[in-house]
Each structure stands twice: as C-alpha cells, then as structure tokens.
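TOPIC: backbone geometry
CONTENTS: sequence, structure tokens:
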Amino acid sequence: MLNTVWVPCYQGVMVICGREFSDELIGRISAGIKAEPAISRRELSRRVCRWMDWTAPNGSLKDMACRTALLKLERRGLIRLPEPQGSRLFIAREQAPLDIPDGIDRICCALEQLGDIALVPIDPGQRSRSRMRPTGSISAPPGA
C-alpha cells in the first residue's frame, strides 16, 4: 500500500469569489501568515483586499468576500489560516432566569411524556385565540 497525500493542482491562477488568485498571491498570503502567525483573519483579509485592490463601488474593502475566498483556499489545501480569534459578538452572556407569571407551572418532563402537541401560529391581532391562559391551564381548541 502506498503512503500518499493528495495535493491540489491548478494552472497558475484560480478564480474564487470572482477574483483571480495567482500562485504568486497565494505564496504572498502564506508568507504573510508565517511572518505573523498571530494575525487575525480580519486583518489578513483586509491586507489581501489592499494587495488586490478589492473594493466595493463605495471604496470600502470587500473584507467578507475576501474572508470567504481565504477559507476556500484553506479548504483546498493551498494556505493554512491562523486560528480564529474569539468574536466579541458571540460571547455567551449569562441569561436572567425566565420570568414565569404566578399561576403557571413549569413542565419538567421528556417531550414524549406530554402526548400530542400542536403549535398553532397566532397573528398578533388574534391573541384572544391563544389556548394558553394566564391561569396556566390550556383550553380546548375552538369548536372542539
């Protein structure tokens, strides 16, 4: 049995996200990552946008399109991106306990133990059709 490794092949220029990535550019990206292993993916993509003059009609850098292209290059085995740095947007916040009104009991059981459940969408103007009542009981459907 041969010990082989798949190596992606392409002919000098690859088009990703509508932009051409040459051997030279891919080498420059790899060299930049090796020179600054702690660079953020955002900063890397902004740098690549400047190298390629990749901008929107309003002049802003096409940062997200470039990040997509860089990820595709990595998935094809052509570059190795730095590890993602945690985004502040996705830091889990401690949630406040659920405020359950008086008279409504918590249901603590497996879903199967509840029996048949129907979720019925109710338009905002039809709240009176809701089967949940402030007392915690569930009413029978209209016409039942």
